[in-house]
Amino acid sequence: MTGFLKGSATAMITPFRNGSIDLASFGEMMEYQIRNGTDALVVLGTTGEPSVMSDAQKEELTRFAVKQAAGRVKIVIGTGCNSTARAVEASKKAQDLGADGVLAVTPYYNKCTQRGLYEYYEAICNAVAVPVVCYNVPSRTGVNLLPETMERLADLPNLAGIKEASGNMAQVLDTARRIRGKCDLYSGEDALNLPVLCAGGTAVISVVSNIAPAAVKALTRAVEANDLAEANALSDRLLPLVQACFTEVNPIPVKEGMNLLGFRAGEPVAPLTRLEPANRERLISAMITFGLEVKA
User: Which of 9, 65, 113, 150 lies most in the core, judged by the most C-beta atoms within 10 Å?
Assistant: First the structure.
């Protein structure tokens, strides 16, 4: 299927306080995104730290996000797991709770074959009616969803597309060629948002848009309008901020960025640590240069 996501989607952070999710703060972050034109919110993706959350916490956050959005913006819930059965159950739960779609990362650690990847996504798609987005991020999972496998998956009726974060543009282009017209390509790596959009990507699923949602949305609009001069100018302006948001593993820097904007983002959950002082100074500098009001 095509047309599920267009424009900018933000991979939302999850704010914690004293071991619990700070729902009030999360609601404020959602409103910040909606005010700035973000088209969809991805909740419980990598940036949201779902791997350290209980099933009860995931359900709590999903319920809240769907209710808070109230149809104003699409809510996509991360449901991927290294167990196909658990990914299926999580996807069914997200659908039951009112999610507009699910994002399923490739199974991690187990390092299954391409056949295993196909059967994993086939099982999820067969279990739910909502759109399903594949998520390829081999640097984290140890498994790479290859273009020829994605070509097969694109024939599944509710397979909406792939969030590509392999960092390999040759692979991205091959995937784009194979799925074009059958399902959609989404950029999953902020540094490559511009080339992926120019290759036919219909949306970006962005980390940096947590702190700069309007600019990321503007980039997608510029490409959609075939204004490559404006798109390049926006990408050039965003790139130092993107680089500062990935000096350490995501979501360490972007969480600190949200704190610096005045949101109660809290700290990453252990074993992740707070941003190192030198990298924090680099982030502050990038945010100020970008024009953001830092409340350090």
Answer: 9
